[in-house]
């Protein structure tokens, strides 16, 4: 397993750190053995010894750039894993272009990733140490956002990632509250420096507690790296996490959803932008300009607070996302007419713990997360495997890094940009077309607990190791045992009665032994094949799991879409119904109005009738008068024509007087009847006329 040459060319240097047992814990049997190198060189290989569980498993051997054993401390890791060259590369010393750096940790939950990268309450991690050396190395060249007025504007204008650039003071005030207000409100000393106690502000706007104390050991105050003395620098901090293969900003607070009481965050895209056509960037992040290490650490604390953590069966607080902490070092030539900002970035990644989903007693969302984590780590393993197989970092297409967000983010800056890719489209790019962008330098620290979970640890080691060698243990005992047994039975059996086997017997035994050896070889080969198949099955299972999650996600999305579509249709239907209801109402109101109008008109007509009644009475009177006159004429005619008939009772006495009074009565009663019944006056007139003719008939008869 000659890896030294290959690992020099590899995209990632992969280190292994073994975690010491917690103090007081009974030391059980280690399943990991560090192979001692022959010379004075540090160890690079480990052997994984499967537990003694009657299952004959292969012994696996893994190669790393270097192995740090349990007694290694933070400083050993800081110096041994090449953090200093990473920081120096980012600063671009001596007028250099600078080189992106990436520092990542990977390991089973509880194996010491966070301890290594972020430290503990008492010890600083590699992040704090890197920030310390970075800020100190550029202390004479760094621009302070509080004093350099144009800094914010120029940095924001040159940022190619559509970022929301903010000053540290404004950001920290939003997250923690105004520290000066805290000091004014209490009798405590003003905001202390790193390592001292912070007084919590009385009314923090985001309710975040300022870290009470930040560790100051290990001390590296004598360590600096080369910077560009002719340049001026600005430091931008951004943080994001990859959760379920989506990118979320950790410095933009999530918006609470009132109905679900959940937090809604907008996923960001990893894409090429107008100002960055040659390489992809996480677009739309919030970036904080920090003038001091303390500010950068406070931003880091705020971002860590935002990061999603949840309890699982394996660890009470387990990282369920891949966390990214980016330190962008903006650099420009120091002069009266400053040039555009360029620069490189140091990205520190805390990869999610890869607990095995079923072992972790997880379910629902957590199970889906575990599936996604396992899948992204599987792709990471494929990329690392491919890089070490190729031993050549200049062929990006051969490393399958575009399969998921995690590998895209980790590997896309690993390859030197080709000439056509490197041509910048805007002056904001620091790189000229003649100077292709340097490929990033990447360091991965794998953490493992030699007393922890064998299965989970072996899976991680398979994903991450630079090389792997499987040895299936031979069964020396099979052949020898049979031979020994048969020989012994022949040689020493008292019943055999002879001291040595015949030549034919010996020959048969030899053939049998050879056959056994051949079969044993065959079995070994089959075992190795089985092991490879098992590994493949694990990978396929992880893929299947993540596909199932995806299906569930898509189903949920489709349901949501259907629901909102249905809601829209219902709303449209409701609007239509309301409109036709309003129309109907208008119609019925119109109908009622018309009815009312008719009623009013008839009432008016009645009123008019009332008013017209005397006129009709007058006309009746005149009719009466006319009739009286006619009757008088007729009486006179009758009298003139027959004087003998004059003996008869005069007509006037007999009828006309009665008729007159009767007519008078009718007029009065007819009038009152008309008013009472409201009937038509025309009808009454007709009745009257008929009565007149009836009477005339009577008169005629009389005549
Ligand atoms: N090298 C070490 N020396 C001393 N203590 C350690 C070391 N590594 C880990 N620990 C301790 O082990 C515990 C678990 O470690 P840590 O939280 O770093 O695990 P992790 O891998 O980050 O887990 P997770 O994935 O759940 O975040 C912590 O209490 C930590 O202090």
UniProtKB/TrEMBL annotation:
<dbReference type="Pfam" id="PF00225">
    <property type="entry name" value="Kinesin"/>
</dbReference>
<dbReference type="GO" id="GO:0003777">
    <property type="term" value="F:microtubule motor activity"/>
</dbReference>
<dbReference type="GO" id="GO:0005524">
    <property type="term" value="F:ATP binding"/>
</dbReference>
<keyword id="KW-0067">ATP-binding</keyword>
<dbReference type="InterPro" id="IPR027640">
    <property type="entry name" value="Kinesin-like_fam"/>
</dbReference>
<dbReference type="GO" id="GO:0005871">
    <property type="term" value="C:kinesin complex"/>
</dbReference>
<dbReference type="GO" id="GO:0008017">
    <property type="term" value="F:microtubule binding"/>
</dbReference>
<feature type="region of interest" description="Disordered">
    <location>
        <begin position="416"/>
        <end position="439"/>
    </location>
</feature>
<keyword id="KW-0505">Motor protein</keyword>
<dbReference type="GO" id="GO:0005634">
    <property type="term" value="C:nucleus"/>
</dbReference>
<keyword id="KW-0547">Nucleotide-binding</keyword>
<dbReference type="InterPro" id="IPR036961">
    <property type="entry name" value="Kinesin_motor_dom_sf"/>
</dbReference>
<feature type="coiled-coil region">
    <location>
        <begin position="509"/>
        <end position="557"/>
    </location>
</feature>
<feature type="compositionally biased region" description="Low complexity">
    <location>
        <begin position="416"/>
        <end position="427"/>
    </location>
</feature>
<dbReference type="InterPro" id="IPR001752">
    <property type="entry name" value="Kinesin_motor_dom"/>
</dbReference>
<feature type="domain" description="Kinesin motor">
    <location>
        <begin position="11"/>
        <end position="470"/>
    </location>
</feature>
<protein>
    <submittedName>
        <fullName>p-loop containing nucleoside triphosphate hydrolase protein</fullName>
    </submittedName>
</protein>
<comment type="similarity">
    <text>Belongs to the TRAFAC class myosin-kinesin ATPase superfamily. Kinesin family.</text>
</comment>
<keyword id="KW-0493">Microtubule</keyword>
<dbReference type="GO" id="GO:0016887">
    <property type="term" value="F:ATP hydrolysis activity"/>
</dbReference>
<dbReference type="GO" id="GO:0005874">
    <property type="term" value="C:microtubule"/>
</dbReference>
<keyword id="KW-0175">Coiled coil</keyword>
<keyword id="KW-0378">Hydrolase</keyword>
<dbReference type="InterPro" id="IPR027417">
    <property type="entry name" value="P-loop_NTPase"/>
</dbReference>
<dbReference type="GO" id="GO:0007018">
    <property type="term" value="P:microtubule-based movement"/>
</dbReference>
<feature type="binding site">
    <location>
        <begin position="107"/>
        <end position="114"/>
    </location>
    <ligand>
        <name>ATP</name>
    </ligand>
</feature>
């Amino acid at each position: 397993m000659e890896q030294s040459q290959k690992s020099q060319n590899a995209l990632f240097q992969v280190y292994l750190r073994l975690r010491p047992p917690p103090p007081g814990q009974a030391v059980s049997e280690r399943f990991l053995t560090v192979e001692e190198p022959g010379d004075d060189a540090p160890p690079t290989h480990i052997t994984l010894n499967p537990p003694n569980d009657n299952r004959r498993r292969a012994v696996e051997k893994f190669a790393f750039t270097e192995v740090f054993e349990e007694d290694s401390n933070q400083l050993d890791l800081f110096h041994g894993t090449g953090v200093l060259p990473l920081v120096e590369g980012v600063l671009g010393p001596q007028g250099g272009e600078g080189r992106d750096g990436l520092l990542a940790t990977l390991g089973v939950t509880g194996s010491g990733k966070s301890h290594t990268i972020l430290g503990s309450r008492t010890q600083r991690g590699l992040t704090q140490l890197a920030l310390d050396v970075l800020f100190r190395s550029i202390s004479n060249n760094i621009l302070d956002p509080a004093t350099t007025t144009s800094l914010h504007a120029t940095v924001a204008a040159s940022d190619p990632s559509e970022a929301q650039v903010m000053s540290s003071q404004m950001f920290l005030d939003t997250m923690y509250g105004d520290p000066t207000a805290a000091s004014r409100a209490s009798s405590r000393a003003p905001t202390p420096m790193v390592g001292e106690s912070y007084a919590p502000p009385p009314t923090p706007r985001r309710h975040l507690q300022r870290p009470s104390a930040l560790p100051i050991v290990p001390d590296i105050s004598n360590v600096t790296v080369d910077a560009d003395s002719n340049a001026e620098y600005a430091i931008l901090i951004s943080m994001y996490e990859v959760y379920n293969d989506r990118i979320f900003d950790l410095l933009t607070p999530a918006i609470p959803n009132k109905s679900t009481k959940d937090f809604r965050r907008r996923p960001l895209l990893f894409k090429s932008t107008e100002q960055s056509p040659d390489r992809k960037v996480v677009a739309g992040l919030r970036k904080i300009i920090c003038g001091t290490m303390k500010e950068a650490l406070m931003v880091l604390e705020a971002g860590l607070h935002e990061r999603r953590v949840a309890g699982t069966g394996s660890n009470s607080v387990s990282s369920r996302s891949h966390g990214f902490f980016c330190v962008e070092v903006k650099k420009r030539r120091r002069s009266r007419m400053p040039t555009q900002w360029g620069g490189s970035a140091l990205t520190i990644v805390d990869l999610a713990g890869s607990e095995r989903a079923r072992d972790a007693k997880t379910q629902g969302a957590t199970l889906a997360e575990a599936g996604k984590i396992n899948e992204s780590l599987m792709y990471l393993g494929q990329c690392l495997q491919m890089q070490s197989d190729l031993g050549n970092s200049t062929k990006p297409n051969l490393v399958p890094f575009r399969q998921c967000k995690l590998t895209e983010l980790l590997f896309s800056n690993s390859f030197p940009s080709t000439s056509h890719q490197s041509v910048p489209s805007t002056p904001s790019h620091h790189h000229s077309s003649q100077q292709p962008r340097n490929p990033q330098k990447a360091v991965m620290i794998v953490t493992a607990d030699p007393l922890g979970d064998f299965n989970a640890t072996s899976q991680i080691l398979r994903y991450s190791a630079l090389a792997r060698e499987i040895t299936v243990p031979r069964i020396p005992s099979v052949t020898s045992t049979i031979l020994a047994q048969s020989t012994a039975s022949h040689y020493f059996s008292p019943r055999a009665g002879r001291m040595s086997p015949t030549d034919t017997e010996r020959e048969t035994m030899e053939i049998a032994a050879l056959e056994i050896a051949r079969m044993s070889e065959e079995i070994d080969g089959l075992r190795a094949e089985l092991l490879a198949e098992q590994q493949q099955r694990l990978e396929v299972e992880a893929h299947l799991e993540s596909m199932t999650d995806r299906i569930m996600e898509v189903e949920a999305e489709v349901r949501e879409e259907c629901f909102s579509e249905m809601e829209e249709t219902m709303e449209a239907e409701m609007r239509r119904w309301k409109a036709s209801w309003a129309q109907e109402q208008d119609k019925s109101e119109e109908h009622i109005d018309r009815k009312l109008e008719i009623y009013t008109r008839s009432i008016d007509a009645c009123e008019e009738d009332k008013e017209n009644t005397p006129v009709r009475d007058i006309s009746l009177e005149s009719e009466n008068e006319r009739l009286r006159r006619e009757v008088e004429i007729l009486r006179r005619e009758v009298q003139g024509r027959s004087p003998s008939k004059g003996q008869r009772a005069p007509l006037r006495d007999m009828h006309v007087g009665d008729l007159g009074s009767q007519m008078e009565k009718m007029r009065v009663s007819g009038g009152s009847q008309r008013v009472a019944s409201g009937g038509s006056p025309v009808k009454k007139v007709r009745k009257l006329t008929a009565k007149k003719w009836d009477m005339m008939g009577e008169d005629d008869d009389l005549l």
